[in-house]
From TrEMBL:
CDD domains per UniProt: PBP2_HisGs
Annotated source species: Lautropia mirabilis ATCC 51599
Gene behind the chain: hisG
Summary of the function given for this chain in its UniProt record: Catalyzes the condensation of ATP and 5-phosphoribose 1-diphosphate to form N'-(5'-phosphoribosyl)-ATP (PR-ATP). Has a crucial role in the pathway because the rate of histidine biosynthesis seems to be controlled primarily by regulation of HisG enzymatic activity.
Protein name: ATP phosphoribosyltransferase
Notes on the domains: Lacks the C-terminal regulatory region which is replaced by HisZ.
Catalysed transformations (reactions): 1-(5-phospho-beta-D-ribosyl)-ATP + diphosphate = 5-phospho-alpha-D-ribose 1-diphosphate + ATP
Amino acid sequence: MLTLALSKGRILEDTAGLLAQCGIRLDSSAVDSRQLILPTDDPGLRLLIVRASDVPTYVQHGAADLGIAGRDVMLEHGGEGVFQPVDLGIACCRLAVATRQGFDYPRAAVPGKRLRVATKYVNTTRRHFARKGVHVDIIKLYGSMELAPLVGLADAIVDVVSTGNTLRANGLVEVESIMPISARLIVNQAALKTQQRTLAPLVAALERAARATSGGQA
Ligand code: AMP
């Protein structure tokens, strides 16, 4: 039995579509329930519902054979102990810097100045500003990042942006795009050997489904 870890929401919705293309269906009443282990109609595959940032941890330690996680999550985790064989091209968005309207970001984000940045993407943010030579004081938050510039906790935030509606609703503007984000299929390195007979066909089928889906960049 293979175990696939993923988060609820956009990734689960898009993955359900890819699995359907592979001939695997989820039980919709289980999806709508609070169950954390979801069966599929394939007795060889079950899903684990975990927090997005925990997906690589489950896969790294072999509690799940494979998982689906955003590039943003994988960059923060570091990717130790997991292969990332397929860009599924789902849950696309971008990692961006945003500030209050009227904040002079081009003058503030220059070498020699200090910028206070609130984010949950601590490692990626540190690397981004280090490349630019900008000193940053990073304030780690776990959610509602948009609030930080509004109440003076930070000058800027780094967060994932899709439509930009959340930023606009809070009077923030995107001032710099850092990188495009999409969800990756990740695989436990040991499982790739021990479960190869069942794992390899599923990885190949998901890759084919991702390619066939419009917008799939796999
Ligand atoms: P937006 O469509 O820009 O208003 O995005 C709404 C919120 O959902 C933002 O605060 C993001 O943190 C989050 N979000 C949007 N797209 C994604 C994604 N692909 N992966 C993870 N979080 C996302």
